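#lab-general

N.A. 3:47 PM
ok so I finally got the sequence cleaned up, no stray characters, all 710 residues accounted for. can someone with queue access submit it? mine expired

B.Y. 3:52 PM
send it over

N.A. 3:53 PM
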Amino acid sequence: MTLAYTRRLGWLYRCLLLVFALLALRLLYLQAWRGQVLGAMAQENVVRSLPVPAPRGNVYDCRGRVLVRNRAHLVFTIMAASLNDPTGTVRELTRLAELKPAQVRELVRKVQAASIEPLVVSDRLNPRQLARLAEAQGRIPGSRLEVFPIRDYPLGSLACHVLGQVGEVDELTLSQSNRKYEPGDWVGKDGLEASWEDDLRGVSGRRVVLVDVSGRPVQELEEITPSPGRDLVLTLDAELQKVAEDSLQQALNELRWRNGERTGGVVVAMEARTGKVRAMASLPGYDPGWFAGGISSRRFTLLLRDPAAPLLNRALSGTYPPASTFKLITSAAAFAEGLIKPDARFYCQGMLQIGEVPFNCFVRSGHGWLSFEDTLAHSCDVAYYGLGLKLTGKRIGQSASEFGLGAPTGVDLPGEVSGNLPDEKWKVKQVREKWYAGDDANMSIGQGFLTVTPLQMAVVTAAVATDGGVVRPYLVQQVKDGEKTVRSLEPQVVRYVNAPLVAWKRIRAGMRGAVQYGTSVRANIWELEIAGKTGTVENLPSTDNPEGRNHTWFVSFAPYQQPDLVVVVFLEKSGGYGGEVAVPVARDVQLAWHRIARRPPGAKVPDVKAPPRIPQPGSVARPGRAVQPTWSRPAPARPVPRSIPSVVPEPEPEPVVTEPEPLLEPTPLDEPPVGEPVTEPVSEPVEPEPEPEPAPVEPEPAPAPAPEQP
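B.Y. 4:20 PM
back already:
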């Protein structure tokens, strides 16, 4: 080895040593001086999977009108795991988004959870807040302005209790969903939005992205497109729903002016033979759009505490005594037991003595001699007291159960209640008293402990109109995925009520008589033959009803010869009688449907305007001039056909007899008072207006009076 070669090899060793020394120094610098900083930066350059919410399915009425849809909505989100200074970030966001204390507390709770999912800071941004937050995206790690689909209700509060509302998924639902939902998902909370959640929800997508140290996406690695939810086609007709709500609201406005109290009411319109619900109005209501982007806890609390209960769907969650509308069921039971013969006659002297207690008819002077049809037409209580004593509460309860009372109807909405169908065991357990004859009498006319929902009474009326067929009401008739029909729902007859065919014909004739010359003459219009039955619930003064005002009912179907639509109207604490206040609402709805159904196929579907906007709870109403409403809404001023006289002739008196031949065994019901004429025809076509009194009380020991209404 030469000297020159040795020198060159030495220089090579020195160069290699210098290179390794420089590498060692660089490594020492990166590990010792910059190790923590670079390690944190490496930690934050990660791949993240971000959820992409799926648009919920649309909801259409039976004629293709849009009831619920989606619209784009800007929200500001942050990644809690990307925040270097969570406390400072929350403080800055509070200032930029003008968050309220409750929103700040909720944001702090979410940030402390340090979720890797985007957290919504504010979903209700005005232009000023939007500009501030857009400018702050560069300063706040992991922050973004994103577009989310939220629910939009183009017809405002129309059918609000049917459609329901949505809200952010809560912790309880998250824990029970088996990873079906993720934090920040929106779910149905009430109405069809809740009961059809699985179809409406859709499947969320994902965005797999590489984010930098600031949490901003720097590269999109993969995207899974969300699948929108399925659409619902309802049996509801938006045009009829609008008529029902407008007419009901007008009646409630008039009652508020007359009684000085804000009360509620219900309209249910259902096809008698199919159970298709064409309209379901419960007032007062709310705007489901309040919940679409999130409602403040303060306003939600005000809604819950509102004494008028705008969130309550009275059609299926409110229970009330059925009053004289229950006579339809008592009649069917009496026919089934053979208590009503073809030539049956009833005598009403205005009162029936049961034990030591007089049970009065609402016409204190008595109705005189009545056929069965006239007992329904004039709503004679005394006749039904006698039938109730013969049938007993047990037999009446069996018939009511066949009609579907005491159990949910099975409608595809959440929150339906069963009502109360009392019997002897129930009274002993709940009231700690035995069952008396007075309870039989009270139950026969729909008073006492018996309670029903308006939807149940619609099913009862449909059974009378269709010879005893008990249908299941439903609201969704089709589920569609785009243009493809995934599922179609068909009408379902649950059972048939045990009663002879002649019973239904005679009961319907009595209901038609009520409209022609009895308690419901305000529904007697030339364009449509309506049959109906009124009901008046007598109330005692209570905490929520200090004046003890009556509730009022009207159940109806039309046309009389070929029943199509059943309409039930119920008014809370209205006072008066059903023929006075509830009948005009049902008449408006029946007439509107009659005209809708007569349109030729292929006719243009008219647009429906949204009802007036409901002020949000807690908002300050603009002052305005109070206007006295016009109370009585007369029927359309049109000529009355000759077959239906406009003035009811006075019936010819019955021949005077000393011992009439009654339908039932001789009781005070059948015996006219000595010295009194056996006939006292009713000359007025409407119900008299005596002062209502509480339900009679049994003496030994006395049965409990009619329960107070909630």
